[in-house]
Design goal:
3',5'-cyclic AMP phosphodiesterase CpdA; 6-stranded mixed sheet; metal ion binding; CNP_phosphodiesterase-III; 270 residues; 23% helix; Calcineurin-like_PHP; hydrolase activity; Purple Acid Phosphatase, chain A, domain 2; 29% strand; 6 helices
Length: 270
């Protein structure tokens, strides 16, 4: 079984120390196989904030971690740096690859960089990115959980979030569903939810949003939250569930609040 801890929008520079400690305790308790961090790791892309993020990551139980940048991970006020080297501070911590991949027998994760130096907060996906991801998904194995991780959401459940949706999603989402994606992970809006995405009659995928992991910049009365994804494949029968964990301030720990069983498509790429 694969166990994946998905968190997003840590916004170092605005982090709550008690919540950060509770997230470390959750990771120690659950022992995930992989951490997925879907952007907005810092508040203002400063070296000190990325250093704080690095220190936090080093305290996690040692497992692979994949990250993609969010719009807050590009300098906002330092315009020369934003134009000439927008990912410089990000790369010092997470390396040069802005669209990392992770693969093992039961899991494929494809990262997509949806940030653009010329945009303040909106995300965008290009035709080249859409094609690259689709081709990679088509090469996946039948038993693999196929995950695409980006920062910006591709579906909204609140009308106020429609303006935050990924530019190019109308082309990307159908293409990736047809190519066999199971889960599309995102962040950005600090609102956790799980919604189905319908493709062809025999293709089923899910949009999964994470809230803000440890930041004080919570949305309304929604607490800090993260997602635990569990997947098992045997004889080409795949089972997947996602549990949302919210921070309970009274207990100073994350607690499970909702588990969703995800219906996955059959072995489309067998």
């Amino acid at each position: 079984m694969s166990r994946i801890l998905h968190f997003s929008d840590l916004h170092f520079g605005t982090e709550d120390a008690a919540v950060a400690q509770a997230l470390l305790q959750l990771a120690e308790q659950q022992q995930p196989d992989l951490y997925l961090l879907s952007g907005d790791i810092t508040q203002r892309a400063r070296r000190s904030q990325f250093a704080a993020a690095r220190a936090f990551i080093q305290l996690l139980p040692a497992k692979p971690l994949l990250a993609v940048p969010g719009n807050h991970d590009l300098p906002l006020f330092n315009l020369p740096l934003r134009m000439l080297n927008p990912y410089g501070n990000y790369r010092r911590v997470f390396g040069n690859e802005l669209e990392p991949e992770f693969e093992r027998d039961d899991l494929l994760v494809v990262g997509v960089n949806t940030t653009r130096a010329g945009r303040h907060k909106d995300g965008e996906v290009s035709a080249e990115q859409i094609q690259r991801v689709a081709q990679r998904l088509q090469r996946a194995h039948a038993d693999q959980l196929r995950v695409v991780m980006l920062h910006h959401p591709i579906r909204a459940v609140e009308e106020s979030d429609v303006s935050n949706l990924l530019i190019g999603r109308e082309q990307a989402v159908p293409s990736w569903i047809d190519a066999g994606v199971d889960l599309l992970l995102g962040g950005h809006i600090h609102l956790p939810y799980v919604v189905p995405l319908q493709g062809n009659p025999d293709q089923q995928a899910w949009a999964i949003q994470a809230g803000t992991g440890i930041s004080q910049r919570v949305r309304g009365n929604i607490p800090n939250s993260v997602n635990l994804i569990e997947h098992d494949a045997h004889d080409r029968q795949r089972r997947c569930q996602i549990t949302r964990w919210d921070y309970a301030s009274a207990d100073k720990r994350f607690i499970p609040v909702e588990t969703t069983e995800l219906q996955l498509s059959g072995s489309a790429n067998a």
